[in-house]
């Protein structure tokens, strides 16, 4: 019995030592993670990659001021959350993702604004005629949006910008005959969509 009790004590001591070793290893890993987090230097990433990230944002959003704002916001958020960055090698990828997400947000906001823009309505003789005119325009614009891209572009250039066949062809980089046939198909499709007899 004495030997069994001693074996149990040795086993318990080994278990306790293993637990302490696991605790020390966990604490060392935590300290190493803290050191790795401290090593992520957002300022050096900014200095090395700012210009390239602004170029990326510029391609996405189309104007310099907005691109710079997007990159600035991405770096500000990265700096604020730098304690969560665990891998210095992934910090640049994180900033790039933040820039792309910022660009997507800007483009979504722009699309929402363009959808909500109320077109200018000239004064009309009565409220009833204004309501009818507004409804007709809305139907035409909805039908126009459903057309294929090329037909929609050709009709928009013709009827909203009053361009000639040749100007439309030059703008769309197609021949004048193709521009005319594209508009003809677009008008026919628009008539069908609006339920008009041609």
From TrEMBL:
<dbReference type="InterPro" id="IPR036388">
    <property type="entry name" value="WH-like_DNA-bd_sf"/>
</dbReference>
<keyword id="KW-0731">Sigma factor</keyword>
<dbReference type="InterPro" id="IPR013324">
    <property type="entry name" value="RNA_pol_sigma_r3/r4-like"/>
</dbReference>
<comment type="similarity">
    <text>Belongs to the sigma-70 factor family. ECF subfamily.</text>
</comment>
<dbReference type="Pfam" id="PF08281">
    <property type="entry name" value="Sigma70_r4_2"/>
</dbReference>
<dbReference type="InterPro" id="IPR007627">
    <property type="entry name" value="RNA_pol_sigma70_r2"/>
</dbReference>
<keyword id="KW-0238">DNA-binding</keyword>
<dbReference type="InterPro" id="IPR013325">
    <property type="entry name" value="RNA_pol_sigma_r2"/>
</dbReference>
<feature type="domain" description="RNA polymerase sigma factor 70 region 4 type 2">
    <location>
        <begin position="138"/>
        <end position="190"/>
    </location>
</feature>
<dbReference type="InterPro" id="IPR013249">
    <property type="entry name" value="RNA_pol_sigma70_r4_t2"/>
</dbReference>
<dbReference type="Pfam" id="PF04542">
    <property type="entry name" value="Sigma70_r2"/>
</dbReference>
<keyword id="KW-0804">Transcription</keyword>
<protein>
    <submittedName>
        <fullName>SigE family RNA polymerase sigma factor</fullName>
    </submittedName>
</protein>
<dbReference type="InterPro" id="IPR039425">
    <property type="entry name" value="RNA_pol_sigma-70-like"/>
</dbReference>
<keyword id="KW-0805">Transcription regulation</keyword>
<feature type="domain" description="RNA polymerase sigma-70 region 2">
    <location>
        <begin position="46"/>
        <end position="111"/>
    </location>
</feature>
<dbReference type="InterPro" id="IPR014284">
    <property type="entry name" value="RNA_pol_sigma-70_dom"/>
</dbReference>
